[in-house]
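>> received
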Amino acid sequence: MIAYSIFHVGPISGLATFSDKYIATAGYDNQLILWCAQTNKALACGRHDHLVNQCDFSPDGTLLVSSSSDYTARVWSVPDMRLIGVISVHADDVSKAAFSPDGQQIATSSFDGTLSVHDLHGVFKKRLVGHTGLIENFDWGKDNRTLQSCGMDGTIRTWDTLTGECRAVRSIDGVDIDTLVTLTDGTILAGNSDGSIASIDPYDNVTFFDAHTTAIKLLIVDDAERRLVSLGYDNRVHIWDLNKGSLEAKIKTSTFPRCIWARSASFLTENVIAFATFGTTYATWDLASNVWDTDRVGPIPGVNAVFAGSDGIYSVGDAGVLEKSGAEIANLGTLCNFVVEDNGQIFAGGQAGIVFDALTATELYRHTSPLNCAVIVKSAAVTFLAVGTYSGHVIYLNVKDPAETKVVKVHSGAIKGIAYQNGIIATGTSDGEIKYTDVDTLEVTSEIGSAHDGIVNDLCVYESGFATVSRDLTLRLWRDGVSSPDVFKSSHRHSIKCVASSSRGDLIASGSYGGTIQVFDVNRKNWTGKPVRPTLSGISSLTWDEATQAFIAGSYDGRLYSVHP
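>> returned
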């Protein structure tokens, strides 16, 4: 039955196409939607129990496989979206699932550091073990037997899916690799977190090409036309001519609209590419006319950041709408990841790389990558906004004089959390690293590698130092001058996304992607009780509201929730 009312209410993280007939979109709203490419109407919908990360059509278009943060991959029939198989062998998020070129096998990759191979009904065949970090991506070889995989350990590994053997390990300068593709001649192209593409020929000769100014999130190949598409967090898409034997030849380039998420795209026709978005449906780019079609992409309600200001609760999210105590007061027109206040001035920023004076929607500073987090820092000399970016830079924006802004490269990975206390700015990253920066010199004074057994998703101050949370489901308290933390296992079942403390720093709240909130008592050194779950959607952000003596949680369902400790 055709269902015209189906649309996404969370960001679209994955997209796949079958010829010019079908488009499938995987969303952070747990939905997998099948669309008619000719009419742009939804045909049917499947669901997971958590975020859907990616999806892929079988070569004949009769099957669709999806990967999810509910630790499963699921196989669906097309076009009725009937569930016909579940892959449940992983112990963490399944980042990708894809059919072999002949359509006879399915491979999956996971944040548990392994890959697995299955038949078309999801029956397990082989596990591939060797990566030492999260696996970001993989690509089938044209022989239907070989896999190339990449991840946060900075390696590219070649696997024999029949025997499970790792045939080769290549290290690409220790940088995070988000994406790779395999060409017909066996050459591997890998996109790095520094914006370059590594070309590795069958004889392991490596050539680097400058492609983007910041992390490359996706590479896709059009074998028929010998073209490569690269998408970066610099909000650029490039089309490269593979016939030239060098990636220095660009066929076309474009700055994509603010609603585009560089995480996923696929050729729909020879001249049209479909893209994932931060909206209700997909967008397209016509290469021949150089026209982007985003007219159908509507706003979604998710809240990404919440802040208890001096005169109300401020929130902002996927649609870029700034609200104060539930009422819209400004529209920034782009997804925002943070909102903070200083003496009545509101700052916000996010995917477009722009720091806004939010009340007036005035652009104060523009960076080359998305912005993730921010904190107001008051030193003896100046008050500034410290902003953590996806490129690992910290922007030190002078609140009184934005022209005096300084930008310092602090990390190689994306900065996920930032906090300030006693002259020290602490930053935590996607590769599990924490660094402390002196507020007067803006120089790093100390660093902690592998601070968690996974991504450091957020950090905050507490009464004796800094608190961090991670995918490893622990709260870690880093006391002043101590590099060995006190570790407290939480009762969350999904990755802890955010953390905040009370004004005195004696209570710490943690929020998870599973919609749960759990509060920790610093003085008693224990959790005050079991997690509460006010929503089935994820908790994106937390703040302490002094007026109500409660934690306020922002959620991907677009609502705010109050939790009294």
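>> The CA atoms of residues 422 and 439 lie 9 Å apart.
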